[in-house]
Amino acid sequence: MAIPQHHSGPPAQARAISRPGSQPADIIELIMADHRRIRRLCQALDDAARWSGSSGPGWMPAHVWQRLAGLLEAHTRAEEEICYLPMYRGHPHAAERRREAAADHDDIREAISEARLQRAGSRLWWVAVSAVPAITIEHLDHEERGPLAASLPRLAMRQRRELGRQYAGFVTAWTLDAAGPPGNHYRSAT
Q1: CB burial class (10 A; 0-12, 13-18, 19+) of residue 181?
Q2: Class of residue 137 by CB neighbours under 10 A (exposed 0-12, middle 13-18, buried 19+)
Q3: Do 17 and 165 touch, CB atoms closer than 8 A?
Q4: Which positions ≥6 away from 53 have C-beta within 8 Å?
Q5: What is 156-168 written as a DSSP string?
């Protein structure tokens, strides 16, 4: 099944921080904004699943799932590439904490990959899709109570804004790469 990918330029997050004369957004603000979007999409997926009929080209859960999966892939990669080193720097068990966080991300990406192997709406697709919100929400809660609350606020605002600029650039590049060449507005849901 082909799912329309409505792509109209860089994500709102990147557009919002690249206004001329404005300062880049704080990395904490960007991560928390992603976390709120992820939570809303998890809830929207649950809502769409309860109210949708049989699957087909316009099936809402598949559309919501595509958005959630894309956001999670960009978000997890950006955190690992941009945030984890400064986030855990100075922590007595920094390497272990980074490995634990990356392992959570790997679990999320594994479930996303499994869902892509299945026909949207099938029982196996739902098994893989249903695992993602549970893993993700637990990870977000842990991250917000732990490293986001303890580590990043200790950085100077200049550093936080520089990380925000890098993060937004990474997410923009990832999103554009995932969309493929211009004019490629459809991606298989399987």
Answers
A1: exposed
A2: middle
A3: yes
A4: none
A5: -HHHHHHHHHHHH
Separation between Cα atoms, residue 84 and residue 101, nearest integer Å? 9
For the record, the structure tokens of 37 come out as 């979007």
pTM score, two decimals?
A: 0.79
- Which 8-state DSSP code applies to residue 22? P
pLDDT reported for residue 96:
87
pLDDT at residue 186, rounded to an integer? 37
Distance CA 182, CA 94 (A): 41
Instruction: Give the angle subtended at the CA of 49 by the CAs of 66 and 172, to the nearest 5°.
Output: 20
| Sequence-separated (6 or more) residues with CB below 8 Å from residue 39 | 137, 140
Stated as kind and residue range, the H or E segment containing 188 is strand 186-188
Widest distance between CA atoms in the chain: 52
Distance (Å, whole) CA 50 – CA 7 = 27
